[in-house]
Design brief:
Length: about 500
């Protein structure tokens, strides 16, 4: 979908989107439309339940003299709550409503909101960003879809008082949306298409943006001693890979920040095999590395002034004659040994070596890892917050703040010695499961055993990587959760 920014004036024809604040306070453009149509908008409001709340919408097909194909009125909520998220959501809702009505293009007339928290240009840019996010659709395999089932909207013109400033504010957001959409594509692709080698190739494509990319194969990883990661992939015919991306937008000598992703391209559970029902969801068990790759695309796309490392541990967890067995003991790159009591607790085994490698080689300012790590985090937090575990209050605070600001909230969970004891093993340095209680925390404790003094945070995104329902800026399916949050973390604290 093409987003344009134009003057704030009523077009002669086509589809229109205008706004009202809480308590039916029509924007200047909405009032002008109402007047041009001899009060058709006011009458429609009176005959409906539209109040101007942040979820309200009203579609008027060919109202009044019919000069406009349709007029859509969207509620924005209270003026004092008009912020980046509110207008982003409004942009997303505009797209959904226009597609629902069959519009091909439309003018969105976004007047300045008095008493709001954003200036006009920033608001217009955010509306465009929300529109792009909601306009996303993964439909490349729907070859027989009829035209009337497809979304109709191909372009949006956002009318604003300062189109030039809006264009400028939109440019980095457009790149951010590219990153989010790439992550969504990667998690949506099935596991016969995206496996370690092809996922690594997606990372390699970022070379076009100036990202330095290396891909390590099993031979290199064996030489590095990554027995923990390699054990997970040994049952698969697909070769395991380690994807290493570097964006050098900062000073020559600046320490980088680092992001590390779990990239299990399919998780059958291995020999500790999962039940059949719902196993297809495990195609998105590479969601953490999908976020890392999409984030690198966004940061490089907008030329972030920061040195950033992205590492993705890519494996397929399969049962086979070559697969790892429960009870096997593996030696990680750190030298620590692990008794693998359950081959389905594989994400932590992959991250153990990926985290160690990252801190060892890059000495980063901080490391944040993302992983669809535990079903238990879904029991704890549902699909609303991701779990946040950290050894550093400042980093945890910054992540929580960034997540809240972009609508990708992270809820801090505890770590501690008592939990750590749960993964002690009689046979090796540790075991890869910690018993029934506190499953997400013992998984995090496991990761922490591979982190030295560096500030570190682990985001358990199992509950937020896929959405079963549409949200204003997230169509159902792969969400890209994490890309906006971490882009903001970098922008707020580690650039310039
Ligand atoms: N990939 C799963 C976690 C998961 C579950 C992600 C549901 C998304 C949705 C992970 O590898 C796993 O299987 N975890 C086990 C750990 C257990 C064996 C200790 C789990 O959560 O059941
Ligand atoms: Mn598993
Ligand atoms: Zn998994």
């Amino acid at each position: 979908m093409k987003i344009r920014f134009s003057k704030l004036e009523l077009p002669k024809d086509g589809s229109l989107v205008v706004f009202a604040l809480k308590d039916k306070a029509l924007s200047a453009s909405a009032q002008a439309v109402d007047k041009a149509l001899d009060g058709a908008v006011s009458r429609a409001i009176a005959a409906s339940r539209f109040k101007g709340g942040g979820g309200d919408s009203l579609v008027l097909p060919s109202p009044g003299d019919g000069r406009w194909e349709r007029v859509i009125l969207l509620g924005l909520g209270k003026a004092e709550e008009f912020d980046a998220l509110a207008v982003q959501n409004a942009g997303g809702r505009a797209v959904a409503t226009l597609n629902g009505a069959g519009a091909k293009s439309a003018a969105v007339l976004l007047d300045p909101v008095e008493g709001g928290k954003l200036d006009g240009a920033e608001a217009a840019a955010r509306a465009g960003f929300g529109a792009r996010l909601r306009g996303y659709r993964f439909d490349k395999y729907r070859t027989k879809e009829k035209a009337e089932q497809k979304p109709t909207l191909t372009g949006l013109a956002i009318g604003t008082a300062d189109a030039k400033a809006a264009r400028k504010a939109f440019a980095p957001l457009d790149k951010l949306a590219d990153g989010v959409c790439m992550t969504r594509d990667l998690v949506s692709e099935p596991a016969n298409i995206i496996y370690p080698e092809t996922l690594a190739a997606e990372g390699e494509a970022l070379r076009d943006l100036g990202v330095e990319v290396e891909v390590l194969g099993e031979k290199e990883m064996r030489e590095l001693g990554m027995g923990s990661l390699l054990g997970v992939g040994q049952g698969s015919t697909r070769e395991s890979k380690l994807l290493v991306m570097q964006w050098r937008g900062g000073g020559e000598k600046d320490q980088p920040v680092a992001f590390v992703g779990k990239g299990v391209t399919f998780d059958t559970g291995g020999i500790s095999i999962k039940p059949a029902g719902g196993m297809e969801d495990m195609k998105w068990d590479m969601g953490g590395s999908g976020v890392v790759i999409g984030l690198m695309k966004a940061l490089a796309g907008r030329k972030a002034k920061c040195n950033v490392v992205g590492v993705a541990g890519l494996v397929e967890n399969m049962p086979s004659g070559a697969a790892q067995r429960p009870g096997d003991i593996v030696t990680s790159m750190s030298g620590q040994t692990i008794e693998v009591l359950n081959t389905d607790a594989e994400g932590r085994l992959v991250l153990a070596d990926a985290l160690w490698y990252t801190q060892d080689r890059f000495k980063p300012k901080f490391m944040v890892n993302l992983a669809t790590l535990t079903g238990a985090i879904i029991i704890a937090l549902g699909n609303e917050n991701c779990g946040l575990f950290s050894n550093n209050d400042e980093l945890a605070g910054r992540i929580a703040e960034a997540g809240k600001a972009v609508g990708e909230p992270a809820w801090r969970m505890p770590l501690g010695n008592a939990y750590d004891k749960q993964i002690d093993s009689d046979a090796a340095d540790m075991k890869n499961i910690g018993g029934r209680g506190a499953g997400s925390i013992t998984a995090a404790q496991f990761l922490q055993r591979f982190v030295n003094d560096v500030p570190w945070a682990h985001l358990d995104i199992a509950g937020v990587t896929w959405s079963k329902k549409d949200k204003p800026t997230v169509p159902k399916g792969g969400t890209g959760f994490g890309v906006q949050m971490l882009n903001r973390l970098v922008a707020e604290h580690y650039e310039g």
